[in-house]
């Protein structure tokens, strides 16, 4: 369900990308330190955005340093670590655990089941730090699962449940910014949920799996309706974002919210249009083939009739 809140690298300066990458790597390192190497499998750019956003808002003391990485053994990479990274690392683990649980319950994916089992003890330890938050998130995931099992096509309600989950994740502490962060997370969560359903539509239909957009997919203006809904969600999200007094890395954050989140959408949209065009082309080719065959058959009949008449004339003579 993640992978949509990313930067548009094509519109970033080299220096901006280096900073963006350092937050990503810093979050990766924090996840290792707090939860072990296995937890790094839950690393995502979506949570990197949350890390950058909260760091820009609260401006904690951030350590910038060079270190080696297993993926880059021959060079040192720059990382940024602070207290926010620890919180986001914990939330990343939490979200990954529930994503694995959902995949295991729905499709019995062995890899997800094994990862869920491996992360269970780490997940349980989070209860000591975020007891109330975990209780609320767990209840929301249960409600989300119930709606999916019932085949709910109420997109607003279903996406709202995940929106509430993201709202809880975005709020690190109850202060004067909690309301804005919560509303921002709510609409961002709705965008992520709907975007995930939009991208998986054909695959879900093929596998007979749940998708909240199934009714919309039957509409001739499916693409237009989805784009309008997604635009509304991001519009509300950005409205709350602009209220926050963030200065540090503001251009990177705006790149993500105003451009990056649409990268995957455009990829899926173009791919779907090409598939539709190819399908129409095949239909045209089929129709042309049928017409050619009919013309060929008619020509053959005419030719055979002409030969027959000519033979009869010759015989009479």
Brief digest:
The protein is built from 12 helices and 2 strands. It has helices at 14-35, 45-58, 83-107, 110-126, 131-149, 155-170, 178-199, 201-207, 214-217, 222-241, 250-258, 263-316; strands at 63-69, 72-81. The chain has a two-stranded antiparallel sheet with strand order 1-2.
Spatial arrangement of strands, main beta sheet: 1-2
For the record, give the distance between the C-alpha atoms at the N and C termini, rounded to a whole number: 85 Å
Classified in CATH, the superfamily is Farnesyl Diphosphate Synthase
Reported for the largest beta sheet, the result is: 2 strands, antiparallel
Give the CATH architecture: Orthogonal Bundle
- The total count of strands amounts to 2
**CATH domain fold name:** Farnesyl Diphosphate Synthase
Strand percentage lies at 5-15%
Helix content: over 70%
Unreliable spans: 281-286, 288-292
Features:
72% helix, Farnesyl Diphosphate Synthase, globular, 12 helices, 2 strands, mainly alpha, 317 residues
């Amino acid at each position: 369900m993640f992978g949509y809140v990313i930067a548009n690298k094509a519109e970033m300066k080299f220096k901006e990308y280096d900073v963006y990458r350092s937050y990503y790597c810093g979050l990766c390192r924090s996840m290792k330190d707090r939860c072990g190497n296995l937890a790094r499998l839950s690393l995502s750019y979506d949570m990197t955005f949350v890390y950058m956003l909260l760091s820009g808002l609260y401006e904690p003391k951030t350590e910038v340093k060079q270190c080696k990485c297993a993926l880059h053994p021959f060079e040192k990479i720059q990382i940024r670590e602070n207290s926010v990274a620890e919180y986001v690392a914990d939330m990343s683990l939490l979200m990954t655990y529930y994503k694995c649980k959902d995949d295991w319950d729905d499709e019995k994916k062995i890899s997800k089941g094994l990862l869920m089992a491996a992360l269970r003890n780490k997940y349980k330890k989070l209860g000591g730090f975020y007891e109330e938050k975990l209780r609320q998130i767990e209840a929301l995931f249960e409600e989300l699962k119930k709606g999916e099992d019932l085949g709910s096509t109420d997109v607003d309600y279903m996406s709202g449940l995940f929106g509430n989950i993201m709202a809880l994740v975005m709020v690190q502490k109850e202060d004067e910014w909690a309301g804005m962060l919560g509303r921002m997370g709510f609409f961002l969560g709705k965008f992520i949920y709907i975007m995930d359903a939009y991208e998986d539509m054909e695959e879900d239909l093929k596998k007979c799996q749940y998708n909240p957009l199934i009714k919309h997919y039957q509409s001739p203006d499916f693409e237009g309706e989805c784009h309008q809904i997604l635009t509304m969600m991001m519009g509300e999200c950005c409205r709350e974002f602009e209220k926050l007094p963030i200065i540090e890395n503001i251009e990177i954050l705006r790149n993500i919210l105003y451009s990056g989140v649409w990268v995957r959408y455009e990829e899926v949209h173009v791919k779907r249009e090409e598939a539709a065009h190819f399908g129409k082309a095949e239909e045209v080719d089929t129709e042309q083939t049928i017409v050619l065959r009919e013309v060929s058959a008619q020509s053959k009949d005419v030719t055979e009739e002409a030969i027959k008449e000519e033979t009869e004339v010759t015989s009479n003579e």
